[in-house]
Specification:
With 278 residues, this protein is α+β, with helices and mostly antiparallel strands. It has helices at residues 17-21, 30-38, 118-128, 154-165, 241-248; strands spanning 3-7, 42-44, 47-48, 63-67, 81-83, 86-91, 95-100, 135-136, 146-151, 172-178, 185-195, 200-203, 212-223, 227-234, 276-277. A hairpin with a 3-residue loop joins strand 13 and strand 14.
Length: 278
């Protein structure tokens, strides 16, 4: 069985992909199914499947191809897949972690009607396969790229949101900023207030009753002639926190359009969006 293709029948609809592959008439075990997915030997309806697709529920009429002697498939591949052009980093029965591209909203916003969101794309995909839509756990800015977590059921959503409220997840970002932070490693502490009219964060006095404390730990990973790559670990999760804190210290993010100061000549590096990745 070096190259075989199976069509999912009605009685197999709803079966997990890895369980379908583990049937004795196919690979015979979950371990062999996982290995085949990890090595790029499985195609689901014409698309290469990865280990992250193991929990995918099959629909009637789906085609599952096993290409066991595929050239170059002797070693494991990265455990990623795609849903509606969005890269899936991890998926199981309760949660989904995606790599959000810059330009997509995490979730739909009333004030940005018509702007595409990751949530919309996932919902359309899941609905077309008879699956419940993923539930929002947290979000990142539209023009920030990086990891976003969605839950697959209400109990998982509640538990994950509670973890974020308790600040248990380790939230790490990479940013490219103008200049080089001095010292190259340390902690940023500020008091911020959100301006509802301008839709930006502003620094304020600690005694301001509206103030919210913002704390970030940073370290410079690499220095360039006019910029630096900085890792930032959030202790708090204020809106636009890294962008405003970097700006307050004279280290505006490359590509930043909102939290800036001075003429554009001070920001000569062209980048389509703020250089920030979660």
């Amino acid at each position: 069985m070096s190259d075989s293709e199976f069509v999912v029948a009605a009685d197999a609809a709803g079966t997990r992909l890895d369980k379908f592959l583990a049937d004795p008439s196919r690979l015979g075990s979950r371990a062999k199914a996982a290995a085949a997915l990890e090595r790029g030997k499985v195609f689901l309806t014409g698309r290469e499947a990865a280990l992250g697709d193991a929990a995918t529920r099959l629909a009637r009429g789906d085609t599952v191809r096993l290409w066991l002697d595929r050239p170059g498939s002797g070693k494991p591949r990265a455990a990623t897949s795609e849903i509606a052009d969005v890269q899936v980093i991890y998926e199981d029965e309760t949660l989904l972690v995606i790599n959000k591209p810059a330009g997509l909203l995490s979730v739909p916003l009333e004030r940005k009607r018509g702007v595409p969101s990751v949530c919309d794309r996932l919902e359309d995909h899941f609905r077309s396969r008879g699956r419940k839509r993923p539930l929002v756990v947290h979000r990142i800015d539209q023009d920030t790229s990086g990891l976003v977590v969605f839950a697959k059921d209400a109990p998982a959503q509640a538990q994950l949101k509670a973890q974020f409220r308790r600040r248990e997840p380790e939230r790490v970002y990479w940013a490219i900023v103008y200049g080089r932070p001095d010292p190259p490693q340390g902690t940023w502490r500020d008091h911020l207030v959100w301006d509802d009219k301008a839709l930006i964060q502003k620094a304020t006095h600690p005694r301001d009753p509206r103030a919210q404390e913002a704390i970030s730990d940073y370290r410079t990973l690499e220095g360039f002639r006019d910029a630096a790559l900085v890792e930032v670990r959030l202790r708090t999760g204020r809106r636009n926190q890294i962008r405003i804190q970097a700006r307050l210290r004279g280290h505006t993010l490359i590509g930043e359009e909102r939290y800036v100061y001075g003429p554009e000549v001070l920001r000569p590096i062209h980048f389509e969006r703020q250089a920030l990745h979660a």
